[in-house]
């Protein structure tokens, strides 16, 4: 029997200083603070304004903080996974750029694209490197510069997204703490509801695609909302029942931060009291692959060794799922 689990042994989040408030958005599109706050829970979001900087630079900030916090040398890192849908460019990977910038000269590195489920899909992937016994130090970063895909003439989407990165270190654990289980899904039948319409191999960039704003996020909010509630809550319920635990056994739920109403219904469905639900959407909006680790970072001072923690996410694809962790420190 394999007695080694993959444990998170450090977490560090970073967001740029510049802020876009609801009031500022109301000067760009026909919206207002009351609408945005009541429908989404978002008050402000961060934006990486410096045009010289991109997603890899945010990933570097998160990893630098993580290395310092965990007293780890960059050259000891063996694998770096960057979960992102906003790599600096289509290729080379954001992870390759990140690894070299931090001096991780003994690591191999790759990007993982699963939109808002990127962190949980990445965590399940990263955990396999550890439990295989071959790797001892793996970094997973969720990093997205969502403002680069946001259309500030479209009120349906520009209010939702922001920029951030957050990283975790995974190491072997012999005490049974770390990643216990994952329930992960994809179903692309309704992929058109949430996508970037152009710029990929199916529809390369042309003057027409630029004119039609097809290089910005397209989302049909209502159908995505309904399926996101069912997907996140359903996956979380499945992981609880599969592991014979109930809401009472859960110390914290760290949900993807797309909409406060989706977060609340997931928590309600699991029978969790509000203090068990980690929420920071009001400050950052939806930072896609970064929401869960950034929230983990901001709430980690409350976690105790052995705490049962559930992660849950839903995003483009569709892709969704839930993970069960035992906090390791
Ligand atoms: N400000 C003011 N009014 C707005 C608005 C804005 N920023 N955006 C939309 N509206 C209007 C719409 O035009 C519509 O007006 P109408 O009734 O006159 O047609 C009305 O508000 C309701 O729009 P609707 O899209 O039904 O709102 P909603 O309650 O569904 O909220 C979202 C919109 C995007 C916040 C919500 O659907 C959502 O969160 N969806 C899921 C997001 C998600 O989880 N994505 C997956 C992970 S990224």
Write a structural description:
The structure is a single chain. Helices cover 32% and strands 24% of the residues. A hairpin with a 3-residue loop joins strand 12 and strand 13. By secondary structure, the protein is an alpha/beta fold. The model has no long low-confidence stretch (mean pLDDT 97). It is globular. The protein has a 5-stranded mixed sheet with strand order 1-7-6-4-5, sandwiched between helices. The two termini are 24 Å apart. It has 2 domains: 172 residues, Thiolase/Chalcone synthase (Peroxisomal Thiolase, Chain A, domain 1); 147 residues, Thiolase/Chalcone synthase (Peroxisomal Thiolase, Chain A, domain 1, 3-Layer(aba) Sandwich), CATH 3.40.47.10. It contains 11 helices and 13 strands. The structure holds coenzyme A (COA). Coenzyme A binds next to helix 2, helix 6, helix 8 and strand 12.
Q: Can you tell me the CATH architecture of the largest domain?
A: 3-Layer(aba) Sandwich
- Domain module count: 2
- What Rg, in angstroms, do the CA atoms define? 19 Å
Q: Say what the CATH topology of the largest domain is.
A: Peroxisomal Thiolase, Chain A, domain 1
Q: Please identify the top-level CATH class of the largest domain.
A: Alpha Beta
Strand order of the largest sheet: 1-7-6-4-5
The total beta strand count reads 13
Low-confidence stretches: none
Q: How many angstroms separate the termini?
A: 24 Å
Hetero groups bound? coenzyme A
- Listing every helix as H and every strand as E from the N terminus to the C terminus, the arrangement reads EEHHEHEHEHEHEEEHEHEHHHEE
Structural class: alpha/beta
> Which whole number gives the mean pLDDT?
97
Shape: globular
């Amino acid at each position: 029997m394999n007695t080694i689990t993959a444990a998170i042994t450090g977490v560090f989040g970073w967001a740029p200083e510049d802020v876009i408030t609801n009031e500022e958005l109301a000067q760009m599109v026909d919206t207002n603070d009351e609408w945005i706050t009541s429908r989404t829970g978002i008050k402000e979001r961060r934006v990486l304004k410096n045009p010289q900087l991109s997603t890899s630079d945010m990933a570097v900030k998160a990893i630098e903080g993580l290395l310092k916090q965990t007293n780890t040398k960059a050259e000891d890192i063996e694998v770096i996974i960057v979960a992102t849908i906003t790599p600096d460019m289509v290729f080379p990977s954001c992870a390759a750029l990140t690894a070299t910038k931090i001096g991780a000269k003994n690591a191999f590195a790759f990007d993982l694209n699963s939109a808002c489920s990127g962190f949980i899909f990445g965590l399940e992937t990263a955990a396999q490197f550890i439990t295989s016994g071959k790797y001892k130090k793996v970094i997973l970063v969720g990093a997205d510069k969502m403002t680069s895909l946001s259309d500030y003439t479209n009120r349906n989407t520009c209010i939702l997204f922001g920029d951030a990165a957050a990283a975790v270190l995974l190491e072997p654990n012999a005490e049974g703490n770390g990643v216990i289980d994952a329930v992960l899904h994809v179903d692309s039948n309704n992929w058109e509801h949430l996508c970037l319409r152009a710029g990929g191999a199916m529809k390369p960039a042309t003057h027409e695609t630029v004119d039609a704003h097809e290089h910005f996020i397209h989302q049909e909010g209502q159908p995505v909302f309904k399926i996101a509630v069912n997907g996140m809550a359903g996956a979380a319920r499945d992981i609880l029942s599969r592991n014979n635990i109930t809401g009472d056994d859960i110390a914290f739920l760290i949900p993807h931060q797309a909409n406060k109403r989706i977060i609340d219904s997931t928590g309600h469905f699991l029978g969790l009291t509000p203090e068990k639900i980690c929420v920071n959407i009001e400050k950052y909006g939806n930072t896609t692959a970064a929401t869960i680790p950034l929230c983990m970072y901001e709430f980690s001072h409350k976690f105790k060794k052995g705490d049962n923690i559930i992660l849950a996410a839903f995003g483009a694809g569709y892709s969704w799922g839930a993970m069960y962790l035992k906090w390791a420190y």
